[in-house]
Design a protein that fits this description.
Elements: H1 12-22, H2 32-63, H3 73-96, H4 108-117, H5 123-133
Helix pairs in contact: 1-2, 2-3, 4-5
Length: 136
């Protein structure tokens, strides 16, 4: 496992990846105090994920070159390649930015409560929860 991440070094990409890990987790094993820390974090990560999806859809629309649908052959391939590069550049730049979300909300015990309650959680996903959610 890597060294703990400092909160200010977590990118939007990492935060969305973490949200995808916790997306189907259940918090029933958490104390009320831990749940009061976990749910606001979960909602911030959910909103970030929704923001990305909205950005993705809008970027796909805005970057689409005029005439792409009507183009044929080499012209279409060239236009499509440039279109894909433009979309990926916009999304990639956004994903590289720091998310500004404080992920380190749990004690080790609280993180383990979440992990143990979700018995089907993969070991690598449990490692991520400890790495990103446990306070130093």
């Amino acid at each position: 496992m890597q060294a703990k991440k400092e909160n200010n070094s977590v990118t939007r990409s990492e935060a969305i990846g973490i949200y995808n890990i916790i997306l189907n987790l259940e918090g029933g094993g958490l104390s009320r105090e831990a749940m009061c820390k976990y749910m606001p974090l979960r909602m911030k990560l959910k909103q970030l994920s929704a923001d990305f999806e909205e950005l993705r859809q809008e970027t796909v629309k805005q970057c689409k070159p005029a005439g792409l649908d009507e183009a044929e052959g080499i012209d279409k391939e060239t236009m499509q390649k440039q279109y894909n590069e433009d979309v990926n550049a916009v999304l990639g730049d956004w994903m590289k930015e720091k998310c500004g979300i404080d992920l380190q909300v749990f004690s080790m015990e609280e993180a383990l409560d979440l992990i143990m309650y979700n018995k089907n959680l993969k070991g690598s996903d449990a490692d991520f929860i400890v790495q990103y959610f446990v306070k130093p």
